[in-house]
Amino acid sequence: MPLARRIIPCLDVDQGRVVKGVNFVGIRDAGDPVEIARRYNEQGADEITFLDITASHEQRDTTVKTVERIAREVFIPLTVGGGVRAISDVRALLNAGADKVSINTAAIHNPDLVEAAAARFGAQCIVVAMDVKRVSTNDEPPRYELFTHGGRRPTGIEAVSWARKMAAKGAGEILLTSMDRDGTRDGFELTVTRQISEAVDIPLIASGGVGSLEHLADGITKGGADAVLAASIFHFGEFTIPEAKDYLAARGIEVRR
Amino acid sequence: MTSYVAVIDYGMGNLHSVASALEHAGASRVVVSHDPDVIAQADRVVFPGVGAMQDCMAEINRMGCDRLLKAVLASAHQPVLAICVGMQALLEHSEENGGVDTLGIIPGRVNYFGAGLQDEQGQRLKVPHMGWNEVVQTSSHPLWAGIENGARFYFVHSYWVEPSDPSLMVGSFNYGVTGCAALARDNLFAVQFHPEKSHLAGLQLLSNFLTWDGICL
């Protein structure tokens, strides 16, 4: 397949600062999202995802200004998510320079927001983010449901049917995060990744749990993901983007060099 | 050669990415406008586009950008770069939104990739065509200068351009179909991908546009 699989470093940003730690050699201010985004751009990342985890809605201006600064210097696609609740939030982020906007909890409370946003701005710029956990026991067929509030609050919504519904509402892409794996470095939750990738016709980004380059490859070859997202393995300088691409290419996966 | 660039704004969203990439590529000045006088004064013109075709065409026509663009193309001394939906709008008809008549500047159609899209090996291909794909330079052109044949550019679209005259095509991509990645005629160069989001290859293309005299070969 000629289309390259995408490697997407993710910046979790709180009040304008990257959290979860970043350790690039030569970066003076380790928490500046603009400097970090520029570095990933130079390394050859295929895309950058910026997740605003700021709790209060009053800090949104900081996010918009940071996105503006990144967009002036980064010439690869930029996805921005976190706290997007209304069409006006989508518009503000797109105007600030985001190429795609990710909608998560608000899609659960108001699925029509996805439809309205896709109709207004185009499906290509609307990403639906899903945080899922396995709810079945080991003896049962695997079943996953959506959770909110960082994986603490169940919604009772089954993951695969939700992904289908969001695709039908006009989402252009799914960002799937396993809350069971997020932060564990145990690798992607491949079963649900495969289930959803096969269920929808839109691209799927796998997220949550990457601790090695092998995990990135598994997300693509076993999970069927179109793109793989990771934070800590890149932030802490364990691997660079070119190293990740070399590894994937050696595994026979198409990458952009 | 001067590089004062006007980006035609017909109200369909963020044009800052295009503007800042042009500045980064070396434009001396970039204005985002739909004022015919401002655009007439520019050395070169960018016709961008995002969003759904029906809304785009409604805004293009409402703001008089159809006449404006035709005048710029006819003037011959202003090189024009059309991007993504801006390229698609140049054709005669698009299948998007149940069928939309477009500007008719380039004979041909804009087709949906279709459900059940597959590659040569029978693997299912997802729509939109989103990501970095190889662009084969099917004809030489000044805007390809310094860009490797087969370099990857960033695409995001569900509809693809098919010009009636295949000789207008200067670049192709393969995604279930062989589609038009770039076409050129006189002072017009149009691309389906997003040079402003295509990292070094994209910036090189924009840089080439800023020094192009508007003549094919």
Walk me through the structure.
- The complex is a heterodimer of chains A (257) and B (217).
- Helix content of chain A is 37%, strand content 23%.
- In chain A, strands 1-3-4-5-6-9-10-11 form an eight-stranded parallel barrel, surrounded by eight helices.
- In chain A, strand 3, helix 2 and strand 4 form a beta-alpha-beta unit.
- The radius of gyration of chain A is 17 Å and the shape is globular.
- The mean pLDDT of chain A is 92.
- The mean pLDDT of chain B is 93.
Structure described in brief:
Chain A has 257 residues and is of the alpha/beta class. In chain A, 37% of the residues lie in helices and 23% in strands.
From the structure above, extract its key features.
heterodimer; A: 257 residues; alpha/beta; eight-stranded parallel β-barrel; 10 helices; 11 strands; 37% helix; globular; B: 217 residues; four-stranded mixed sheet; 6 helices; 14 strands; 30% strand
Please report the total strand number of chain B as a whole number: 14
Helix fraction of chain B by DSSP (H/I, runs of at least 4): 10-25%
* Average pLDDT taken over every residue of chain B: 93
Unreliable stretches of chain B (pLDDT < 50, length at least 5) are none
Indicate the mean pLDDT of chain A.
92
How much strand content do the residues of chain B show? Answer: 25-35%
Strand order of the largest sheet of chain A: 1-3-4-5-6-9-10-11
Elements of chain A, N to C (H/E)? EEHEHEHEHHEEEHEHEHEHH
The major pleated sheet of chain B works out as: 8 strands, mixed
The share of residues in helices of chain A is 25-40%
- Inertia-based shape of chain A: globular
Number of strands of chain A: 11
Output the structural class of chain B.
Answer: alpha/beta
